[in-house]
């Protein structure tokens, strides 16, 4: 009878030890991610300050815009060589524009890529080969085409309309 109590105590303590080890590993992973995130945020703030210091406003004619892989984009080889290997395969928003007498390939900010008008002259804020903002010069700005709604989104809106609720945005 005494042996049974000893085995029960060992089983409980073994489970407790396993739980504590798992908890310690999770805490260590969270701490590492916290410090890596803090370091990445600091680096991103430095890059943003550098871009703000080097920005200039340029008038350009937008010829074409596409999302394409870096190696197919037509950017200079020096730019492609400087990018990390993991990013070379990802698609970037590339804008082909005529700036003065030259035709250049530029990288657009993801936030403004859809609002860049095609075949129009615009005034853009550029930092190196990176377009950070765009304002139209001539003509009216076209609204970005609305995306088609999926089946579940349409069904949700129809149900909300029947119920008399305000639609979610």
What's the arrangement of secondary structure elements?
Layout: H1 2-53, E1 56-69, H2 77-82, E2 91-99, E3 102-108, E4 121-127, E5 130-136, H3 151-163
Parallel strand pairs: 3-5
Antiparallel strand pairs: 1-2, 1-4, 2-3, 4-5
Mean pLDDT: 84
Count of folded domains: 2
How do the SSEs run, as a string of H and E? HEHEEEEH
Kindly provide the name of the CATH class of the largest domain.
Mainly Beta
Could you say which overall geometry the principal axes of the C-alpha atoms support? extended
Put simply, the count of helices is 3
Estimated share of beta-strand residues: 25-35%
Radius of gyration: 27 Å
CATH-scheme architecture of the largest domain: Beta Barrel
Key terms:
single chain, alpha+beta, OB fold (Dihydrolipoamide Acetyltransferase, E2P), 5-stranded mixed barrel, 3 helices
Brief sketch in words of this structure:
With 169 residues, the chain is of the alpha+beta class.
Descriptive notes:
The protein is α+β, with helices and mostly antiparallel strands. It has 2 domains: 53 residues; 81 residues, OB fold (Dihydrolipoamide Acetyltransferase, E2P), CATH 2.40.50. Strands 1-2-3-5-4 form a 5-stranded mixed beta barrel. The longest helix has 52 residues. It is extended, with a radius of gyration of 27 Å. The mean pLDDT is 84.
């Amino acid at each position: 009878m005494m042996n049974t109590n000893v085995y029960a105590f060992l089983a409980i303590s073994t489970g407790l030890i396993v739980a504590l080890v798992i908890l310690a590993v999770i805490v260590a992973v969270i701490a590492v991610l916290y410090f890596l995130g803090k370091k990445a945020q600091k680096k991103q703030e430095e890059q943003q300050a550098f871009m703000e210091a080097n920005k200039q406003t340029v008038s350009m004619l937008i010829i074409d815009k596409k999302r394409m892989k870096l190696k197919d984009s037509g950017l200079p080889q020096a730019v492609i060589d400087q990018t990390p290997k993991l990013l070379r395969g990802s698609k970037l928003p590339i804008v082909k524009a005529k700036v003065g007498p030259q035709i250049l390939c530029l990288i657009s900010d993801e936030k403004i890529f859809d609002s860049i008008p095609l075949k129009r002259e615009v005034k853009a804020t550029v930092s190196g080969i990176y377009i950070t903002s765009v304002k139209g010069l001539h003509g009216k700005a076209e609204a970005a085409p609305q995306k088609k709604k999926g089946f579940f989104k349409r069904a949700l809106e129809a149900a909300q309309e029947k119920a008399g609720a305000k639609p979610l945005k």
